[in-house]
Design brief:
The protein has about 100 residues and is of the alpha+beta class. The chain has one domain: Glutaredoxin, CATH 3.40.30.10. Helices cover about 25% and strands about 20% of the residues. It contains two helices and four strands. It has a four-stranded mixed sheet with strand order 2-1-3-4, covered by helices on one side. Helix 1 packs across helix 2. The chain is globular and about 40 Å long. It starts with 5 loop residues before the first strand and ends in a 9-residue tail after the last helix. The chain binds FE2/S2 (inorganic) cluster. FE2/S2 (inorganic) cluster (FES) binds near residues 11, 13, 21 and 59. FE2/S2 (inorganic) cluster binds near residues 22, 56 and 59.
């Protein structure tokens, strides 16, 4: 059995050479936002871990995150999208198809 109900990985990679990367699109801020939001949820929903990850290899599709154990990938544009992923996927177990990649 997994220690966490859900494990969320935000790619926060910054490429030094200026090439496209998730952190160019605010990934570190989005990860910090998500971590704070999840910490404020009721106990059951706090069985969620929100981590920073290095490059996940889909740089031109970012900014992105992946949620395990389902292995569902999302591209988000802003904190409204992050809120929707937290509410729907983590809160209700419903994949947010419009953001799925
Ligand atoms: S920089 Fe995010 S997937 Fe590569």
């Amino acid at each position: 059995m997994s220690h966490y109900e859900h494990h969320v990985f935000f790619c926060c990679h910054q490429k030094a050479d200026g090439r496209n990367c998730c952190n160019k699109h605010g990934a570190s801020g989005a990860q910090a936002y998500a971590k704070e939001r999840v910490a404020g949820l009721p106990l059951k929903e706090r069985q969620v871990r929100v981590n920073k990850a290095g490059c996940l290899g889909r740089c031109d599709e970012g900014p992105l995150l992946v949620i395990y154990p389902e292995a569902v990938w999302y591209r988000y544009a802003d904190t409204n999208d992050v809120d929707e992923i937290i509410r729907e996927h983590l809160g209700h177990g419903r994949v947010v198809e419009r953001l799925r990649i």
